[in-house]
Amino acid sequence: MTLAPNTSRAPEPITLTPEEHAAIARVFEGAPSVFGALSTLRTRRIGLGYRSETGEDESFDWSSHLVVRQREGPLSFESASGPRPLSEVEEALIAWASLGPNGIITADIPVQGDLSSLLSWAGRTVPASSNDQAVDLFIINDSGVHLYRPGTERMAPVEIAGPDDYWKVLHWYRAGRTTLTPKRPDVAWATAPPGTHNVNTMGALQYNANRPGSTWFLPVGDVGLEWVNLLLSSYQFGGFYLQDPETNKPAGCEQWIRPGFLEVGFPIPIFDELALMQHVTEVACVVQNIRLACETMGLGAWAMGGYSDDLLLGAYPEVAAGLGFAFLERDPARNPSKTATCQGLPGVLDARMAPSRRFPNAEALVRHVVELRYQRGAHLSPTDNWGERNKGPFTGETREAILQHPRTHIPDWVVEAAIDTIAYIIDKYGSAPSHINPVRAKFSAQVHHVDLDYYRKFHTGGEEPYMATPQLLSHFRDWHPGSNDPYQRAPHA
Question: Which range marks the domain in which residue 345 is found?
């Protein structure tokens, strides 16, 4: 996951088909307001091709190849329709809503109040601590696993200002999406260690997870980047230092503990948790954006979090390969929270943690995160400055004043103190971060075409179930004209 600027020229606009333009215009111009969407926002878990407590055997050939059976219950249902995957434009709109480019941030943080903690001035549709863009979006569908990463260059302070900008949504999806594997990962309901009989690592709620026809939007976060950046910010502007919880002594940074430098101890596990909470806040916004987008489009969005993300990422290959991420083998005696420690996906995402392939030690890790601000082309670089190249957020005069101000630059002592602290943590606990997994994928959303027959069978309402909004009932007519419309059947058939 690199933040190195892409200095290529602005892309040429792509030509949308009339159907593509109409679809994008529908959500920008004719969809319910935010308040309208919130009033009807629901989790609609049952999609076309899904099942619910039928009590019958079923083979999950598309994922785990297990033969499974969910016990029969009062909500027994088997979809009469086959899977109906999302279209390209549907996926593109949801991906953009989740964390797509939306222009340039305001960066309205005082220089004396830690403006330098921002790692980017490129705006996305979600907030992020330090605007570090440390969350990527993995898209899992019938054609495989894909990475959506549209980059950090911006074409305008507000990217989509009107119909002439609609093409960007599909451009970012096509140019910023990379296929990683041509099939779904081998995880599903009932994925469990061999020989177990009552273990479900993907969670009891997730019977239809990863099912054909669905698109699983999976935010994957590099918590280590936020952790290192937060450490630098804390040392420069916060005045507190990391403290070993076992000794209640400074974690390798004793020489900088004095008035005006580092003054108050902060236990390592609490600091780790703080970085994790910063990540959780961003991912929660991603998932909520997906839910709101789907509500306006008439799609089902199922927020999921009851699964083992370590298993999904690939921590237990003897159970499932998952997404194939690499994990550090840690000495159990030096792993106080017994956490799995993910190093990233080789060639795709190098997690900001040490030791790892890219960051073998504390110095390599810290200096990398520092340079994200100041390297050529970055937003605080005097050479090929990002703000000058992308025309914002500041005027030229303001930008130069910021670049020249001493508080914009991280003092050498802060860098050295951070290196010594991280070196201490690695030596003591075997990894930095030490008490949390540096890569997380715990909260996500699966999107599908809703099976109205389920809700017509079980739910209250008038002619249609109360959860059947106008945009849902008209979805196939609006978004898939000319195709078979499974919603145009007699209610309660």
Answer: 18-479
